[in-house]
Predict the structure of Aldo/keto reductase.
Amino acid sequence: MTIPTRTLGTTSPLTVSTLGLGCMGMSEFYGSPDEAGGIATIHRALDLGVTFLDTADMYGPFTNERLVGKALAGRREGVQLATKFGNERLPDGTRLGVNGRPEYVRKAADASLERLGVDHIDLYYQHRVDKTVPIEETVGAMKELVEAGKVRHLGLSEASPETIRRAHAVHPITALQTEYSLFTRDLEDEILPTLRELGIGLVPYSPLGRGLLTGAIGATPDTGDSRATAYFPRFQGDNLATNLALVDRIKQLAAEHGCTPGQLALAWVLAQGDDIAPIPGTKRVRYLEENVGAVAVELTADDLAALEAAVPRDAVAGERYGDMSTIDA
C-alpha cells in the first residue's frame, strides 16, 4: 500500500508520512535494546513509505540516535528526521534534569548531528520545557540553528498553550509532540485548539497507550520494562485491571470492524484531523506492518462515536506518568 502524506504547520510547513515511527524502544525503556531489530524495522518502514522517524538524544542515552543514523546510511533522502534535546543525561544514564539554556541547545544539536551522521535535522524539538529558562531564550537559540542550516523546522514537546504562544512568537513552531490516544485526550480542551489557531501540527506519541491499546498486554510487563514501574501508573494493580476492561471493549469493536485493536486505536487518532501525524513506536517489523495497516481503516462518524462511548475520557485509571512535574502546565 502507499502511505499518504500530511503537512505539519502552516507558517513553517513540513510534509511527512501520515504515520511515523517512534524509535525510542529500540534502545531503551520497553524491554531489552535491539539494534538489529530496530535497523530492520526502520528499513522496512522506509520501504513501506513510513519516512517520518522520531528519536532523541536521551534515548539510550545517545545510542538511539546512533542506531537511527546507522539505519539511514545511504537512505537519508526523502526522510523527515526528528530528534530532541532538553532531557539532559550522562552516558551512564544519570539524569541531570531539563536543560533549555541557549548554550546547551547549540551543543546538543551539534552532538545529535554527529551521532546521526547527517548535515541537518528536519524537525528539532525541545523535549521538555525548562521552567527556569524563558522559552524565548531557548527558542531564540533554536532559531539560530535554523539560520545556520543545521535544523529545518522547530518543535516543542509537552508544552502548555501559553508556552506554545510565546515560542511561536519567536520563530514559527511546526509541530507539538505530546501524548494523545483514546486513553489520553486532555489536550483536546486547550492545547489542540491553540495549535489550530496558530497553524501548528500535532505529533502524538504513545498513540497506542504504550501498548495497552493493542490488546497484547494482559498483565504487568516484565521486569526490565519501565511500564512495570510506578512511573507508569496505568499499568499498576487496579488501574491496569480497569484499563484492560476498556481495552476489551475496543477488541470487540475491532472484531466487528475486521481489524486489530491497535489498528482501530490508530485509525481513531488519524481521524482527528489532517494536521495530526502519530508516531507509534516499535522495534519489530511485524508490529510496524500491523500499524501501517491502520492507514487503510476507514471510520465513519458512527464508528468514532462508538469508540468514544466505549472509552469515555474520564474512564481511564491512573495518571499517564507517576511524576508529572516535568510536564509544562
